[in-house]
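Can you give me the bound-state structure? Components:
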Amino acid sequence: MPKIFVDVVVKYTKEGSKIPLAVIWENGKNYSVDKVFDITRAASLKAGGQGMRYRCRISGKETCLWLEDDKWFMEA
Amino acid sequence: MERVILHSDLNNFYASVECLYNPQLRDKPVAVCGSQSARHGIVLAKNYIAKAYGVKTAEVIWQAKTKCPGLICVSPNYSRYLKFSRMATEIYRCYTDLVEPFGIDECWLDISGSARLFGGGEKMAVEIKEKIKAELGITASVGVSYNKIFAKLGSDIKKPDAVTAINRDDFKKKIWPLPAKDLLYAGRSTSKKLERVGICTIGAIAEASPVFLSNLLGKWGETLWSFANGYDTTPVSHFSNEAIVKGIGNSLTAPRDLVCDDDAKTLLYVLSESVGERLRRHNLKCRTVQISIRGDDLLSRERQGKLARFTYVSSEIAEKAYEIFRGSWNWSGNIRLLGVRATDLVTADTYRQLSLFSEGRHIKRESLDKSIDAIRSRFGHYSVQRALLLKKNAINANPIEENIIYPVSYFKGPL
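Here's the bound-state model for the whole set.
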């Protein structure tokens, strides 16, 4: 399955936005989110899903995190 | 000023959403089908691969599988489709407030005011379809024209993921060779009548005399003639306008055939409760009750009767529906589907003729229904029920929650 749901540590700001701080991978390892570049609504054709896409740098690597109906997923 | 109208059609909508969520299905023939166990087992939508095998919408599943043995049937997920439809509307609303939905997957947009701002109708159409593809992951085909009818025909010409513009200079070349049945409101029986007099294309309708068409088809003749010539001036209604409601109805294919009066009575009460609740929600009362019956011969019959007073009380609608039923069905066969419909509507708080004798009872029933609505909105539909429905649990249902996508008419007009 190319769609991987992950646990995410999230900061809820007082304006109501959600900012991912760290991703906890399946093996329990913690990867910090260094920077969020942009947030936009987008579909993921590869993983099969749709939601808010957070383009970010996680542990030095640029990648995307999706928030779909209160669940976070990544493309494998 | 020349109007600029877009018609956006989300391609194979249900099937596209299912394929988005299940990437492994994308290159296989897929059909979204109703539940077979509840006997709603027909094809609701299919993808292009299934279409190539000749699978048709509204076909029964076994028929579709005979044509396409590898067909993958998936169950519908209406709440997800409604969500996608809402998100598509949000995208349209970035460009204009004149957005008129036509079913769940089609919309007209009047962009006359903003087209210049975005570089013209065609450019905007491309931008909108690209945005839908990126944000929702499904494709749309968009027609651009100066009236709603040609815009709709345009969106059908090239599919999927395409834009087709039709203007005053080239509509005869692009629209007129199309078959007459492609025109909105030229249904099966109308096209047959037209074919009989040698009219097979939209161009032939346009070139026929409107008087001749009126004699042939009644008032629709002239309407079709004006559609075919591009004379339609129906406005795209404002986003916030609701359609004028002419009738409220629900029908249900029973999970098993109905075999006796008691079965029918149960289902009529289920349907009448839903109709009554929807009337009260829209602050309407009805004077006429219509029922439709489909037997196991698959033929439909409709009967109607007038009520003594305007009402939105579920039990009064149900009693009338059952009375009509008793007078029109002699159990020559079992029943597959029943429908109840309330028509002859007025706003609930208009003045009305009071009855000298039974007014008190009627008022009590009204307040009882309102209390039941309040309980159900807090604790759920099944929190309070009629004893009658508890007896036949298999037939019981909540049509309001289970049938949320209603067909619409082109001629609804703004309020």
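A couple of observations. Chain B has 16 helices and 13 strands. Residues 1-175 of chain B form a domain with the Alpha-Beta Plaits fold (CATH 3.30.70.270).
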